[in-house]
Amino acid sequence: MSVFVQTVVAGTLMGGIYALIGIGMTLIMGVMKIINLAHGQLMMVAMYITYVLYEYLHVDPYLALVVTMPALFVLGALIQRYLLNPLIKVEAILPENQVLMTVGIGMVLTEIARMIFHSDYKSVRPAYTSISLYAGPIAFNLPMCIAFGIAVLLTIGLFIFLLKTDTGKSVRATAQNKEAALLLGVNADRIMVFTYGLGAALVAAAGTLLLPIYYLFPDLGGAFTLKAFVITILGGLGSTVGAIVGGVVLGVSESLGATYVSMGLKDAVGMVIFLLVLIFLPGGLKRLTKI
């Protein structure tokens, strides 16, 4: 029983980080109505920034958040403003041209990272990486606890921003009905630029929090883009609360799969649950949980 509880605890802690990844994609998908297939690559960029700050300037990985989040917000806003927004106004044979552009952006970011850092694996291991806290027989890895706590605080801050500020309400209005928001005076183009930047900042935070407990290489982004998409579908398209639920479900599923099936097949367990949700709950878990 203690092994099961330990597995669920570890999965829940990882799920908190996954939730940030999913929320970032959900916001972009809700406002822009596209799947951001460069999402994981943006996270990879933030992880490399964290690595450089730790390796050469000896900045604690978690303190690097004050650099990676603003940096990726700016990068995301520039991508949206100069690469994606122009495609909205151009009639093309393929209406999914914005999605194709995000694929290209992801490939460019990956190859730039490979050119600068090569393809070898890198990691960040502060002195507290191996420290664990205990509650009876259950161990809580300190870096994962810190990452989970910061992820919760960022998520709460995001919800306060979306619910209480004028800009946040404009984001929600644009996601719900862009035409109505335009009639009410919302600058939809500016909101889309801001939202892409915000989504990039959130996934940057997830990458920075993940680095002390994970590893880094240029092709990492593709796997996490897939995870973000799975989380978004699990939680229900456009639902930020659903993205939190989806992130935790994926984290726990992978943890259980690694413990009871095989470490090498933990990702496959998450994919199986993803397929089952698509078959039996095509609206995502939000239909089941009423969120």
From TrEMBL:
Bilayer topology annotation: Multi-pass membrane protein
Gene Ontology terms describing biological process: amino acid transport
Keyword Cell membrane: yes
Single GO cellular component term: plasma membrane
InterPro entries, A to Z: ABC_transp_permease, BCAA_transport_permease
Annotated family: Belongs to the binding-protein-dependent transport system permease family. LivHM subfamily.
The protein, known as: Branched-chain amino acid ABC transporter permease
Organism listed in the record: Desulfoglaeba alkanexedens ALDC
